Amino acid sequence: MSRKESCAKTSDLTLHFNHDMLVVHRRYEVISIINDVLIGLWFLLGSICFFYSSLMMIGTWLFVIGSAQMLIRPVIRLSRHFHLKRLPQASDDF
């Protein structure tokens, strides 16, 4: 066995996930995607509102909403982390 093959063998990583962990991960992923889409929507609509002086106030509020929602992104990730920590660990027995 060559040194390259030996290094490849020792650097392999095996992760074990149970069904509950995958379900939780997927749910938080969907929530995160919906949040990101809404952030983009608020900023896009806010930008369009800035083309019209009569909608400037609404545009400003949409930017504030989008900015506040950007703070939700790390909260979603942190919530997922704590939720996954509460789940029982996957066993190595198959």
UniProtKB/TrEMBL annotation:
Q: Which organism is it from?
A: Kushneria indalinina DSM 14324
The membrane spanning regions, by residue number, are 30-53, 59-76
Where does the record place the YrhK domain? 26-81
Do you know which Pfam families this protein is assigned to?
YrhK
Q: What is the protein's given name?
A: YrhK-like protein
UniProt KW keywords: Membrane, Transmembrane, Transmembrane helix
Taxonomy, superkingdom: Bacteria
